[in-house]
Amino acid sequence: MAHFYDRERELKDLGIVLEGEPNLVYFVYGPINSGKTSLIVKALNSLPKDMSPFYINFRGRDVSSTGEFMNCLFRIDKKSLIENVKEYISDLAREGTDALAKLTGIPIPKRIFDPIFKEKDKGDDAFLYLEEFFNGLVESGQRPVFVLDELQMIKKVSNAAGRPLLDKLFNFMVRMTKETHFCHCLAVTSDSTFVEEISGNARMEGRSRYFLVDDLEKDRAMNVYNEFGFKDKELVWNYIGGKIGDMVRLDVEIRLGISEKDGLNRMVKETANKLEDILEEANEGFLQIEHKGKKITLHADKIMEALDLFIHEDSVTKGGILPMYRKLLVEENILFLDPVNGVVYPHLFPLRMSFFNKRTKNIIIQERIVDITVSTFFMVDINDFGIGGFFQLRVI
């Protein structure tokens, strides 16, 4: 089970949503490592016995076709010989809510699954089965909750007719919530460009709501630091801020015998190396991105200009960065786009402090100019320069 840290406020809000009648599709989104999955798992494990959660996580799954989507979605019951959905649900109900609670996919008898899988357009019959299944649960006194984690993994999947699978999935989720009120439907994602596409989808307007699971504010983060036993909490905050996933990772590093500072530097260097590779590819003229159906070559100086915005600002409006450069940096998990609130901010906390590239820069440190050559960006401990202390650098 995923660990759970200081998300009582969000857990309470999710509980309020799930207690009510299903009316909207909820999109749970937020930066990487903010604790979205842990929050969802905790909420599902806290449900009353008359609620049946069905949680499917597409992370790490190869989903490039409707058939592969179905293999992720369903748990095939090879023992059951039943061919009638209502009869099958009655059979499940007799086993009790504990049996339903152990399911990690939608149960379906093999004799019902096989004919669906053989159909040319598998999606239609699959969603018909799901509707009948959820309706049957409601009639038996259960309230189903349908959760799809890392939903962006299926955004490129199309059916036999070439229509995006997401179109049918969203239509189904709207039907389960807004129209029939059979089932709560939640989609979880860390892909903010995907959320931007959804928020601009007229089909979902008035039928969906967005639930942001952001990094923790400083006071809440400090409470979690205490739980982990971090010693230099200000140093940790300057490196990783309120990212719960990064706190967990730092805790592992420390338990492996690595110092807090070295563990933090490792985490920064990994992202720095990725950014360095992006800049090198751009310098060589090979970095392209698809924007509005066209391949556009991106330039290193423009990437630098976008990142330089965060030397003095924690966030900027999404219109402050050219769309193709914003898309690149968001897809590479360098920046996070909150499309609902219209702002962009860095995933990696040091980007909010300072940024460097391969060129030699002049850096003012307490009225002293120190020439250094750096390979990329990082937070600087000025003990390294014989001055003492830890502070934010200003690039000139």
Describe the structure in your own words.
The chain has 15 helices and 14 strands. A hairpin with a 2-residue loop joins strand 8 and strand 9. The strands form 5 sheets. The protein has a 5-stranded parallel beta sheet with strand order 2-5-6-1-7. Strands 10-12-11 form a 3-stranded antiparallel beta sheet. It is α/β, with parallel strands linked by helices and about 400 residues long. Helix 4 packs across helix 7. The longest helix is centred in the last third of the chain and has 24 residues. About 45% of the residues lie in helices and about 15% in strands. Among the domains are: about 200 residues, 3-Layer(aba) Sandwich (Rossmann fold), CATH 3.40.50.300; about 45 residues.
How is this structure best summarized?
The chain has 396 residues and is an alpha/beta fold. The chain contains 15 helices and 14 strands. Among the domains are: 205 residues, Rossmann fold (3-Layer(aba) Sandwich); 43 residues.
Sheet with most strands:
5 strands, parallel
Counting DSSP H or I runs of 4 or more residues, the number of helices is 15
Percent strand equals 15-25%
Measured distance between first and last alpha carbons:
48 Å
Query: Structural class, judged by helices and strands?
Result: alpha/beta
Query: Whole-number radius of gyration?
Result: 24 Å
Lay out the secondary structure.
Layout: H1 8-19, E1 25-29, H2 36-45, E2 51-57, H3 66-73, E3 74-77, H4 85-95, H5 97-101, E4 106-109, H6 110-118, H7 122-139, E5 143-149, H8 165-179, E6 184-189, H9 192-199, E7 208-212, H10 218-228, H11 233-240, H12 244-255, H13 260-283, E8 288-291, E9 294-297, H14 300-308, E10 316-317, H15 323-331, E11 335-338, E12 343-346, E13 361-365, E14 368-372
Helix pairs in contact: 1-2, 4-7, 6-7, 7-8, 10-12, 11-13, 12-13
